[in-house]
Predict the 3D structure of the following.
Amino acid sequence: MAIITIAAFVAFVILRQSSDFSLSSFEPYTYLLSQGIINTIYVSIISLLGSLVLGFILYLLSISKVKYFNALTDVFTEIIYGTPLLVLIIIMAFVIGPAFGTFNRNAMGFTALIVYMAPYMKNVYKSAFSSISEEQYMAMDLFGFTPYQRYRYIIIPQVIRILMPPLMNNFSMIIKGSALLNVLSYTELFYAVKVVTSQTFAFVEGYILMWVFYLMITIPLSQATKYIEKKWSL
Amino acid sequence: MKIEIKNVSHTYDVEVLNNLNLNLTKYKSVAIIGVSGSGKSTLIRMMSGLEKPTSGEILINNYDVRDDAYKKKIGFVFQSHNLFPHLSLKRNITLVLEKTRGFEKAEAEAIALKNLSLLHLEDQVNKLPKNVSGGQAQRASIARALSMDPDIIFLDEPTSSLDPILTHEVLKAIEELRDLGKEFILVTHVMSFARAFADYVIFMSEGRIIEQGPPTILDHPQTRELIEFMEKVR
């Protein structure tokens, strides 16, 4: 019922457009559009992996006994939380990148996404690891598990279950955030559609198509997240 | 069982145990009672080697409780069941047996099933801890402790997180274990259980042992502290 309501709304919006709705003008550009989709997925996966690593480093620094490292992660997190992603992408590509002698704007755009997501990933790690109680560590100690066995059989299997749902939410955030890379003329989905519509003038169709493409990626992802959350909860 | 506690003191932020001394030789089941914050849980954790005292020495059955060899001789049942939440009741036992006690898979499985049946859990063996009742989880935790074939089983308020009906169910299961030839050291709030199950009772208040002796001391308290305590728990 809810889906029908939304479908009705979409149909209404499409019918209200002044021009006829036709996707035929996009046919010559299928290669560019599919390139856009592939690049969106590509950049999202790179950013996911990158932010997983950087987030883990941040997590380690945040639990370090060295006060300086704790403070450093706090300051970094505060700055990132206060910065819009679009601003961060532009600062990375046009200010920080050149300062380090790199003019590869795409790479700096990827880096911006990674840096932006890292504090969120840090929080995911934090909640996952803190969910293993002190008593469980005592039990592992009592039974005499080796450090390897603790991680292999007790800690990591639990952490992954707790980690997965928020991780997939973050992945969805990355996919959506990657649309902003169009300001660097990186050929992800948003940019590809922008280029195509500037030539076909079928703006309405192009924007709707783009929207549908994003939803085609993100909705299955969030459904999978819900499934895993239910299946794996402890 | 032989218990020697020599000048044991312990401090977290405040003093929890104050120069405890105890020398017992012939008892098979020792109950520690007292109000919350009297230091009884700290004491049982130290007697099991889970926590180390700030000063002093504890020997049980001639083992220094800090020895690794001692850990193989004891089982510990925590306040809340403390099963590994991602493993089935059966796997909670077989994992420990296989990885830390060197049992083959089939042997471990046989031991696990035997002990789970002993605690009337034969129908629940493949369920996760979250899918059984608190009483069943606590009984599984007792089965896990038993499966390590310990000489001594420690029970740290095994029913404190359970309602009266489940408390009865768990205590009844523990009473059934009396004939297994194991020794018990337990902390409990349930005086009827201490009377029926223990052959020696230690009453603690504010980090000291105030009274000790056979369970009959509960019927004829000598000190102001125990008189007040017995009035409250009656």
